[in-house]
Amino acid sequence: MKMLVAVQFFIISLLLTSSFFVLSSADSSCGGKCNVRCSKADRTHEECLEDCNICCQKCNCVPSGTYGNKDECPCYRDMKNSKGGSKCP
């Protein structure tokens, strides 16, 4: 009986720990980084997020801050839209 309680405690602890890890690492995803990047965007927030997420998924990075710093991520910096302008906010 004690062994069963110990196993159940271990399983519950493992589940709680893994769910905490998933919640704490959520900000490292594209969505969290793009939310920060687009928080002060001149264009609509939704347009900025859409482009930022496309760029982040292709480049696996988003520059820090709300503007500039694109040298931190050359792929993000060099992506162009159909008109030849910068694709990524």
UniProtKB/TrEMBL annotation:
InterPro entries in alphabetical order: GASA
One of the GO BP terms on file: gibberellic acid mediated signaling pathway
Keyword flag Calcium: no
Signal peptide: 1-26
Pfam family membership, one: GASA
UniProt-listed PANTHER family: EXTENSIN, PROLINE-RICH PROTEIN, GIBBERELLIN-REGULATED FAMILY PROTEIN-RELATED
Family recorded in the similarity comment: Belongs to the GASA family.
Protein name: Gibberellin regulated protein
Lineage of producing organism: Eukaryota, Viridiplantae, Streptophyta, Embryophyta, Tracheophyta
